[in-house]
Amino acid sequence: MTEIRTAAAASLLAVLGLAQAAQAQEFQLNVNTALAQSDPLYKGLESFETNLEEKSDGRIEVTLYPNSQLGSNEDVLEQARAGAPVAIVTDGGRLAVFTPEFAILGAPFLADGYEGIRKVVTSDLFEEWGQDLHDSAGLQVLSFNWWQGQRNLLTNVEVTTPEDLAGVRMRTPGAPVWTETIRAMGATPTPLPWGEVYSAIQQNAIDAAEAQLPAVVGAKLEEVIDTVTLTGHINLITGLVTSAQWFDSLPEDLQTLVRDEALAAGEIASQGTQDVLEQIKSDLREAGVAVNEIDKTPFIEATQPVYETLDLADLHAEVQAILDAE
């Protein structure tokens, strides 16, 4: 009889343990990124996963999917809009389809380095854009301080002026602010998924690309290009964006925790980017790729009309006031 009672008690404890575990994990979030695990931003995502699970006492479980395992950025954004428990690291250009103000974040030569652009994405003005995105598109910004570096030209020809890019088919994301910037810089913008860039250059389907340095080595593009021109034409700040429906389903304490941890993780990711830039330049040169500093003035002048073309001139003035503030 004692053995039966002992077995019954053990069984009951096991059932209770399973029930408590099920109760503890109340929410699931799947985070998709086009980046490779070697990218410094991925370290920020790992921090977000670990700290959010720990500080929520296991109530939120986070799973990371590098290399676009859940689909393209556009596909995952649509999943989020439909209420799926997914999040994605994405840029303002893609979000501008829903809230036009986000386009300014990808505009040419807007801010220099992380500290400048961070002032914009942590401002009250940015919070207004985020609220509009939530209400109109069903998307929730968790934080937008994930700096991936400044984007540069990746070619197999030497580039010093916009004239050198005449006829060059250059891969860029398909959002208007990106395509208009590349067109103004002298190249022919050619939207393609990032994962196809290596083979497209290799097979001469495109001639060139533009990207931040960590993405270059993450995609092993040093094998198919011979020149990186440090134009820094777009200061790539990205954000961790999820489903507004999923976010709104969280209790208020978890909503606060998710946003706080996303902001903290973005700082880790951005510092990681800053820390590796010089080493990446050195590694590229060692691999036989020319990494060239140039006078950016011709490119800055050539791209200023983009603000007027995309009706961003007034917003540019508002953002510039934030950048100029002490």
Secondary structure topology:
Layout: H1 2-24, E1 27-32, H2 40-55, E2 60-65, H3 73-81, E3 86-91, H4 92-95, H5 113-121, H6 124-137, E4 139-155, E5 169-172, H7 176-184, E6 188-191, H8 197-202, E7 208-212, H9 213-218, E8 227-243, H10 244-248, H11 252-286, E9 290-292, H12 297-303, H13 305-309, H14 313-324
Parallel strand pairs: 1-2, 1-3, 5-6, 5-7, 8-9
Antiparallel strand pairs: 3-8, 4-7, 4-8
Helix pairs in contact: 2-11
Task: Write up this protein.
The structure is a single chain. The protein has one domain: Bacterial extracellular solute-binding protein, family 7 (D-Maltodextrin-Binding Protein, domain 2, 3-Layer(aba) Sandwich). It contains 14 helices and 9 strands. It has helices spanning 2-24, 40-55, 73-81, 92-95, 113-121, 124-137, 176-184, 197-202, 213-218, 244-248, 252-286, 297-303, 305-309, 313-324, and strands at 27-32, 60-65, 86-91, 139-155, 169-172, 188-191, 208-212, 227-243, 290-292. Strands 1, 2, 3, 4, 5, 6, 7, 8 and 9 form a 9-stranded mixed beta sheet that branches. It is globular and about 55 Å long.
For the structure shown, list the relevant keywords.
326 residues, alpha/beta, D-Maltodextrin-Binding Protein, domain 2, 9-stranded mixed β-sheet, 14 helices, 9 strands, 49% helix, globular, disordered N terminus
